[in-house]
Amino acid sequence: MTQAPTPPQPAPFPRVFKVAIAIEVLERLAFYGVYINLQVYLVETVGLTVASVGSMLAVFAIFRSWLPVVVGGFADRLGFRASLLIAFSCYTLAYGLLFAGPTLGLAYVAILGMGIGGAFMKPVITGAVRRYSPEGRQTQGFAIFYASVNAGSVIGKSTVYVLRRLLSLRTSLLVGVVGSVLALVTAALLFFEPADDDARDARPREPLFAVVTGYAVALRNVKLTAFLVAVSGYYLLIEQFYQTFPLYFARLAPTLPRELVSLVNPLTIALLQVGVARASKRLDPLLAMTLGVLVGSVSMLAMGVAPGLGGAVASFFLFGVAEMIFSPRFYDFVGAFAPKGKEGLYMGLALAPAGLGGFVGGKLSGALIERFMPKGGAIDALSIWGTYAVIGVGCALVLFGYRATLGRGAQAPG
């Protein structure tokens, strides 16, 4: 009796891929561990004004979202390992400055350092996932990558909560320092690009000025530019979980674990991603994104209508649903504008709305907190979160109008 041939086993993920994923977990652990309390720390511990911190977080949104577009070209030329060493040197310095209890000027330096660190790190890790995933396993590679992002968030925020309760808020910032140092050591000792990368990287590369010119050409497409501006309102909403929520919850319910409450979002995505994707896949991209923004608006309203733990949990849960509806269709839609061979450039532009929305959101957050949530005074939660809900509804209406006019000829394949 002839034995059936054993099907070929898929190629394993190489060591360099696994090291890249470990570095991603450490970076997200450090970043989210610091970011969830950054606003509270700068206002309540360092003593900066709410308005100045709002402006700082607005600038940070620009750095975080737009610098990778510019710096990515340099990172590509330096090589993955060198870029990681630069990234985590910047991160370590930035988090160290924050822990030192900075003045306004040093806080801006720290924010810039975090932005530069992320700009060098982000394209490297996603590039490593794409490059080193075995043939036919790229989708699985990116699934592992996204799981590592959520894992880092959960570990970082949980650790920070424990340190804050047992020691102090300032001490909890050491999670950022330690995580970055560990990532720096891991990159220096364990991350080595395979030798055959030399031949691959020897191919001619487009000059940096050509990349800049390419962005200018892309933005001359009115349909694309109008769309990127329209969806910036969605990113204004999502940033409020870091630009408004930490200080809001610290003043409203100082004994409740804001770090753990924020974990409702990644846990919701982990549990419901497949089901929500199936339920929304038949919607065309613009309708799906409009629905996602509307759910996000309801999320904002929940925080204002039900101040306290219940409203906060509902808000993070609902925005998790909004993200699952919005995000996949957003990237598909932007990618559909890209000519063949320019996919990377156009996906770089997908970062622009996050920077614009986060910048406006930071400025608005500072103004709303000063007006409706003064320290020691009454908290008007509905006025703060209701304002964000109205902005979300406005964004959804703009997207609906876009679909009815400019969007008809620019819809991504569904």
Features:
disordered C terminus; 79% helix; 19 helices; 414 residues; Growth Hormone, Chain: A; 2 domains
Structural overview:
The protein is mainly α. The chain folds into two domains: 14-197, Growth Hormone, Chain: A (Up-down Bundle); 221-414, MFS general substrate transporter like domains (Growth Hormone, Chain: A). Helix content is 79%, strand content 0%. The protein has helices spanning 15-45, 50-78, 80-99, 104-132, 138-166, 169-172, 174-190, 197-201, 208-219, 222-230, 232-243, 245-252, 258-261, 264-280, 285-305, 309-336, 343-349, 352-372, 381-404. Helix 3 runs antiparallel to helix 7. It is globular, with a radius of gyration of 22 Å. It starts with 14 loop residues before the first helix and ends in a 10-residue tail after the last helix.
